[in-house]
Design brief:
Elements: H1 14-28, H2 31-41, H3 53-66, H4 71-79, H5 91-99, H6 105-118, H7 142-153, H8 166-177, H9 184-187, H10 198-208
The structure holds fe (ii) ion (2 copies).
């Protein structure tokens, strides 16, 4: 297998770095596939709930899809807990770092903060702070994170829910991670897209009922 000539980075030349750049582009193109594999691994994490972490992720994304949410929201919902395996104490920031170059700023913020917002539902039972979210009061995306948790995340632990399979979401993930990183037409800083779109929801639920 061809490799670069150098053993220390400072000794590399243009040919070496052009060669590496090609490799990097090929590797980056498969990010979506690797993330879906990581999601499947989530099946092994965090026992005790009535459904697995993969089941929870798929159910969260299914609710987003049925709400008529756009692709950025659906993929963010699907991957919001992907950090559970390697970053159990800041899984929200971990997932946000993965999504950040490829989805709207609004969605990245919501995923990054969802851990604090979720505390509203359980922290008072374990000596934590259910008001951890209050430090973000007045932030433009505060209500979006509130809705993300209320409508999609905290409610998606139901083994009886009709959850869509992982392959249903593959095209959404592939589309998002094939985008140009940090494309301004994707980032759209400050723009708020509603989580739900009633007309799209009607179409989808009619088609999938
Ligand atoms: Fe989470
Ligand atoms: Fe979650």
């Amino acid at each position: 297998m061809k490799t670069v000539k150098f053993t220390a980075m400072k000794d590399g030349d243009r040919e070496d770095y052009e060669f590496l750049n090609e490799h990097e582009i090929g590797f980056a193109a498969k990010t979506g596939d690797r993330l879906l594999e990581a999601l499947v691994k989530l099946d092994e994490s965090l026992s005790g709930y009535k459904i697995t972490r993969l089941g929870h992720s798929l159910q969260t994304a299914t609710r987003a899809w049925r709400d008529g949410a756009d692709t950025d929201w659906i993929v963010s919902a699907l991957l919001h807990d992907v950090g559970d395996i390697y970053a159990p104490y800041n899984h929200d920031e971990y997932a946000a770092a993965i999504l950040k170059p490829f989805v709207r700023e609004q969605c990245t913020w919501v995923v990054e903060k969802h851990g604090d917002f979720q505390r509203k539902y359980y922290a008072h039972h374990v000596g934590g702070d259910p008001h951890a979210r209050d430090k973000f009061a007045g932030h433009p995306y505060f209500d979006d994170c509130d809705q993300f948790c209320e409508r999609w995340d905290q409610t998606s632990f139901d083994p009886g829910y009709d959850t869509l399979p992982i392959d249903f979401f593959r095209p959404f993930v592939t589309e998002v991670f094939s985008r140009k990183a940090y494309d301004p037409s994707v980032m759209r800083p400050g723009e708020r897209v509603p989580l739900s779109d009633p007309e799209t929801a009607r179409e989808r639920n009619g088609a999938s009922a």
